[in-house]
Amino acid sequence: MRREYVYKGFERFWHWTQAALILFLALTGFEIHGSLAFFGFEQAVSYHSAAAWALLVLIAFAIFWHLTTDEWRQYVPTLENLREQAEYYTVGIFRSAEHPTRKSAVSKLNPLQRLVYLALKVLVIPVVVTSGLLYMFYRYPQRLGVEALNVEGLTAIAVLHTAGAFFLVAFLIGHLYLITTGHTLSSNLKAMITGWEDLEVEPAPAAPASAEEVAA
Amino acid sequence: MRKIFALVAVLVAIVALAAGALVRRDTDPSPTAALRARYVKKASSSVDHSRFPELKRTFAEPQQVTEACISCHNGRAEEVMRSSHWNHERGEYIEGRGVRYIGKRNVLNNFCIGVAGSRESCNKCHIGFGWGDKPFDLASARNVDCLACHDASGTYVKKAGGAGYPDTGVNLTEVATHVGRPQRATCGTCHFFGGGGNNVKHGDLEMAQFDTTRDVDVHMASDGANMSCVDCHTATKHQMKGKSYSLSSMNRNRVQCEECHGAEPHAKEILNEHTLKVSCQACHIPTYAKVNPTKMRWDWSTAGRLRDGQSYEEKDARGDDVYMSIKGSFVWGRNVKPEYQWFDGTASHYLLGDPVEKIPVPLNRLHGRYGDPDSKIVPAKVHRARQPWDEQARIMVQPKLADGKPGEGAFWKDFDMNRAAREGMAIVGLPYSGKLGFVDTEMTWPVNHMVAPKGQAVGCAECHTREGSRLASLTDFYMPGRDSNRWVDGLGRLAIVLSLAGVVLHAGARVVVSRRQPDGRKDR
Questions:
Q1: Whole-structure pTM value
Q2: A194 CB near a chain B CB, below 8 Å?
């Protein structure tokens, strides 16, 4: 075992703020959708918009951080170890097998996580954010008389935005559960709170691709 | 240290942005205050009419008053004679029909149906003297009734059944020497009592507004802006601004809230966005008929029942007629939530002689749809009735209702609807098969008055809700809170259920496995 500083200060701040905002957006969003009753429709809309702006600012900072620190390489997908990782979750975990992927500060994600988080970042979040912005601004072309950009109705925007929201809730359920599949039940959670994690040192059966190698 | 600064900066930025989006911009209350101040000053006449010798005399007939008026105000009578107040009709372009003169001559309603055959009685509300059932000279200026609108004495009354002549008890000298700008009382004498009683037709115009409070009508309230009708319904050369779509078809010369309040008067941007598709009235008139009830249903098919050979009336607990032998059965409504329709400012009407194409028969229909940039959602009173038609010819019937004496076929004297139909249809020059029936009809009256104080405006959740939305009947667009996509919601719920099930099964299996391995790593 060795203790390593895996999650840096900004990363943890970003993660938890995003988590809080997305939870709050889900709560207010599903109230607007008519599935919940908590704040009342009017307040829910107002809070949802405010939280959306906050999330946009956070995303802007996060993108900047990922680009400037090269952390974006964490999400470059790889086929290596993918099958082993899937087998671990379906079989190995019940046999107290070793994690097939070694975690380190330069490679925090296993191949499955890489795929899922990449999909989140390039597909789900952009769809939800774009449809959310359209939700806020689709009236402007008509108000300003720009007929070429006129958006006829909310149906498509609402369908995309709601579908994205359902997907994020389903993801969140899986995400919360998978926290418990670390070295110990709580090691992943502790790591995301403190930044420090006890990592196994013995070489993994299949050596993890370092970020540089994957990018190359 | 630098890191902490950066984190704090990000946090502050996020909080500031969120707060900025949440905080309501406090706008100066002056827009409405300025408007109120404008209308507090009441116009006063530049001359004292009570000092004119031309008016301080006795008048043998009301036409002499008119002659005295136009001896100074020359040219004004001709203006009046070009107005719909005088002609009771207007040239209007109607989609699919071209330009038609439409008015009381050829448009039916589903209250007292129409004036033909009953002008002696109905034309009490014509601004002229003597337009009865005999031919009337619409080109004679001396028959213009200036006092109907310009009485400021509060004593001018028209005679029942008098074809527009004043009541014999009116002191014409008193009225002629006390004239002025039309007041709520002058307009209201006719417009509050359309359909044969207070608030029967409009629902948002009634005698309570002679002297009312802000709760009922912020504009006309004596304790509010205290505005008179003509403050909004201004006139140029006696052509009044404003349209009632019971009779109008074209989108012109309307009175719009935006003229005073601007197109986007809200402090909250999200409300201003609503104004693209939602009329001001839709939110700001949550209910109509706030004081006295208005008629919601009228069933002519029960009319004509007699007790001991006599006509009779039945009243409800409030004292409103629910049955009258001369008119049939009624349902009244108070504090009624409007129905909502798309409206582009144009309407079409059933014109006398048109074949009935649809039941219930829409006697008028507002045009509009979501996709049309000129259409907005407006609140409306929909009055539903069952009224006579020619079952064989499938056309609506204009019965003759009123007459001074029995035996002339007027329903209100003789109680024979078949004969009243024959007499009425002969007067309007239409055939009548003799096959009398009753058919359901609908009439739509946009609601524009009884604007509530802003605190009482319709709340977001009254429309944006799954159940009981005020806009439940407008289904041609997606509205958040009311609508959802069946597939998205179904598959979305399924995804959540499957995730939960997967978690429970997987975790359960892990627990079971770890118990079987007492020496294994239990914390896995």
A1: 0.89
A2: no
Radius of gyration of chain B (CA): 30
Q: Which residues contact A33 (CB under 8 A, 6 or more apart)?
A: A162, A165, B480, B481, B484
The domain A2-215 belongs to what CATH superfamily? Answer: Transmembrane di-heme cytochromes, Chain C (1.20.950.20)
Q: Do B13 and A155 touch (CB under 8 A)?
A: no
Nearest to B21 among A17, A53, A177 (CB): A53
β partners of residue A117? none
Residue A165, token pair as written in the block = 């929201």
Residue B464: band (very low, low, confident or very high) from pLDDT cuts 50, 70, 90: very high
CA within 13 Å, CB half, B154: 3
Q: Which amino acid is at B457?
A: A
> What is the mean predicted confidence (pLDDT) over B106-113?
95
DSSP secondary-structure letter at A155? H
Which residue, chain included where needed, has tokens 């006139």? Answer: B235
ipTM of the complex: 0.88
Instruction: Answer yes or no: are the C-beta atoms of B148 and B156 closer than 8 Å.
Output: yes
Judge if the upstream peptide bond of residue B31 is cis by omega within 30 degrees of 0. Answer: no
A45 touches chain B (CB under 8 A): yes
| Token pair for B100 | 């038609």
Q: Where are the domains of chain A?
A: 2-215
HSE of B224, CA atoms in CB hemisphere, 13 A: 21
Q: What is the CA radius of gyration of chain A?
A: 20
Asked whether B362 and B350 are in contact (CB, 8 A), the reply is: yes
